[in-house]
Amino acid sequence: MSENAENAFQAIKSQIGRDAKQGDWFEVDQERVNAFADATLDHQFIHIDPERAAQTPFGGPIAHGFLTLSLLVHLVQSVPNDVPPFDGVLMGVNYGMNKVRFINPVPVGSNIRASSRVIDATLKGNAVDQINEVTVEIEGQEKPALVAEWISRIVFA
């Protein structure tokens, strides 16, 4: 175990139990939804055909749930972080998710933002696994779009 990993682990652990912090709003537009449909080959009409989608209970096109999930990388970058940069970081990797729940569809044209809080950390040799609960809010809606437990692994030299 490296000293850098141990220091980072202690710093991350000190964040457990603190309130979630919110990032910046981001618009999910039709062009992005269409590009995601093309990239994933998911061309279901509720995402890409505004006229047909308007006839559904959604009242218009909605973003793919997996698009919203994929945007977490971008959305959390604007969430304030109280921990200073760590020394000796070799790399950070997306290690996975413990839970993901798609609670509310994101209407195309909506603004979304992430809030995040540290809920756990584990020291694993020269790496630290950090688990954050991330919630994606939809501007003007009570229920969030999704809630996920996201595991990031930070590897130290």
What does the secondary structure layout of this molecule look like, with pairings?
Elements: H1 3-13, E1 21-22, E2 26-27, H2 30-40, H3 45-48, H4 50-53, H5 65-70, H6 72-76, E3 89-102, E4 111-124, E5 127-138, E6 146-156
Antiparallel strand pairs: 1-4, 2-4, 3-6, 4-5, 5-6
> How many beta-strand segments?
6
Helical amount among residues, as a percent range? 25-40%
The tally of helices reads 6
- Ranges where pLDDT stays below 50 over 5 or more residues in a row are none
CATH topology assignment: Thiol Ester Dehydrase, Chain A
Shape: elongated
Main beta-sheet annotation:
6 strands, antiparallel
Overall mean pLDDT: 97
Based on secondary structure, the structural category is: alpha+beta
CATH class: Alpha Beta
Order of helices and strands: HEEHHHHHEEEE
β-strand percent reads 35-45%
Could you give the distance between the termini? 10 Å
- What is the alpha-carbon Rg in Å? 18 Å
The CATH architecture classification is Roll
In CATH, what is the homologous superfamily?
A: Hotdog Thioesterase
Number of self-contained structural domains: 1
